[in-house]
Amino acid sequence: MLFEKLTISKRFLRELDFPMLITVLIICVFGSLNIYSASHLSYGNQFLKSQIIWIIMGFVLIYSILLIDYSLIKSYAAIIYWFGVFLLVINCIPMFQYTVNGASSWIKIGRFTMQPSEFAKVGIILMLAKELDDMEGNINNLKNFFKLTMYAVIPMALIVSQPDMGMTMVCFFTVLGIFFISGLDLKVILGGMLGLTLVVAIAWKTTLIPYYQRMRIISLFNADKYQLSFALQLTQSKIGIGSGGIFGKGFLKGTQISGGYVPESHTDFIFSVVGEEWGLVGALSLIAFYGVVIYRSINIARESKDIFGSMVCVGIVSSMLFSIFQNVGMTIGLLPITGITLPFMSYGGSSILTAFISIALILNIGMRRKKINF
Fold it and tell me: What is the recorded function of this protein according to its Swiss-Prot or TrEMBL entry (predicted)?
C-alpha cells in the first residue's frame, strides 16, 4: 500500500530536518507579506488569501509525501514522468492552451489553470534518478547516456514548443547538474554546451526565437534605448531596488510597487518588492535563508543511502539554484527577463506546490538516510 499508516514513526521524526522545514516556512511567510504589499492596493487581500491556501496545501503535501518510503516513490517514477509528458502534450492542444506573456505554457479548463512544465520538471528529476540508480551510476556507457538524454529531451522539446524558454533553461540546468554530479565525462558536458551554443546561434539567425524573447535579450544590453518599451519592467525594477538602500523603505511603503510601475511584482518580480521595501539587508537575508535550504539539501544528497536519493536531491538543488540565480539576476539587470518564479516567494499555485513537492522529497530522503561513502 502507498500509505501504510497516517502517522510518522518517532524513529523517522528524529531524523527529520526541522531546521530546513522551519526555514521554508519563514521564506513562505516573507513571500506572503511581499505578495500582499505588491497587490493589496489593486486586489485587496485576494492574492494573499490564495497564497496562504497554497502554502497550507503545500505543508499537507509534505506530510503526505513523508508518509511514503521514497524507495516506493522510485517505483512510480516512470508513471509520474509520463504523466508529466502527457500534460505537456495536452498543453499543445489549442482548446486547452492559456497564453500568458507570449508563452502558451498553461492549461485552462473552466476557471482552473495549471502549468504542466512545473510538474514535468519533477518527473524529469525522478526519472533520471531512477534510471541512474538502475544503471548503478554508469552514465558514461553510450547506451545508458543516450537513454538518459532521451528522457530529458522529450519533455524539454514540448516545453520549447510552447515557447517557454525560461522553464526550458531550468530543466536544462537541472539535467546538467544531475549529469555532472553523476560523473559524466567532462568532455561530453563541454561538447553539449558547445552544441547548445551553436543551436542558439542558429535559432537567433532565423525566426525560431520569437520577437518578444529576442527583444528581451537585446534590451538587456540597451536598457536606456528601450526603457519605455521592452526594458520598462527592468528599468522600473532597478529603480525600486536601488531606492530601497540598505534597510529599505518599510513594509507597504514601496513607491515603485504601490504606484504599479513594476508589472508582475507579485509573481516573477517579487524580488523587486523585497529590494525596495526591505533593502539590501532584507535581500541578503532572503538569499541566506535559501542558502540554508540548499546547504542542508546538499548534505542530505551526500548522506543518502542510494544513488536514487542522491540524484533526486541533486536535481532539486540544481533546479532551485538556477531559478534563484535567474530570477534575482533578471530583476537587477544581469540576465534576460524570463517567467521563472522565485521559489516559495512568488505568487502561483503550480510554482509553490511544485516547490513543496521538491522539498518533501528531500526531507523524505533525509529522514530515511543511512550514511554511505561514495
Answer: Peptidoglycan polymerase that is essential for cell wall elongation.
